[in-house]
Amino acid sequence: MEDKYLKEIWSSPDHEIDGFLDINNQSFVLHIKKVKSRLKSLFLPKIIGIVLGLGWILFMFMLIYFSLLYTPMSLGKVFFISSVTMILLITGLGVFLYVKDIFTLKQIDMSENVMFTQRKLASLQLSIMNSVRVLWLQLPFYTTWYLNYELITHGSVLFRIIQILLTGLTTWLAIWLFTNTNYKGLHKKWVQNFMRGYGFYRISEAMDFINEIDNLKNDKYNAQ
User: Which site from 24, 48, 127, 129 is most exposed, i.e. has the minimal number of CB atoms within 10 Å?
Assistant: First the structure.
């Protein structure tokens, strides 16, 4: 009965939830409102990210298509298509993870066992972290798409030095960020601040509230 009651609250629109406060289970209702608020705040950034990501993928695809269709084969074309293709693929993976996150959010059900719900939220956190990590990997390819035969063979010494430093630095930075943006690095302030912007800690807050709801259920059951 308690799970049915929680599911009824969870499935109710926000403007109807306050009606449950008239029942002697205010703590349940308030905690569920907090969980819904934390999770609901994740939807809009995800949707915006998907729309922008799909727009960027379409733009990259058009660049590749017109390059293949209208430009002659050359070393510059190889660099251009290879770089843009890698950016497209990495962005596509990021969009896929964003879509996956939305489906996970939709599947959260307060009538389920708290362990299952926590597991879904934990997988959502991992997905958010992976999407951030993966998107860093496209950095070096923004420094190679414009290279061509003339620049490589006849470019000045200064250009070559700058190009090597730029590509090398972005490659190192992408790998460093990819390897350091993980659960082990959450104690670092810069990782915490960065992940906070992606809603990582909103999920942590939702998990804490769900634990409190479970404790309230257990206390009520033990009191009976």
Answer: 24
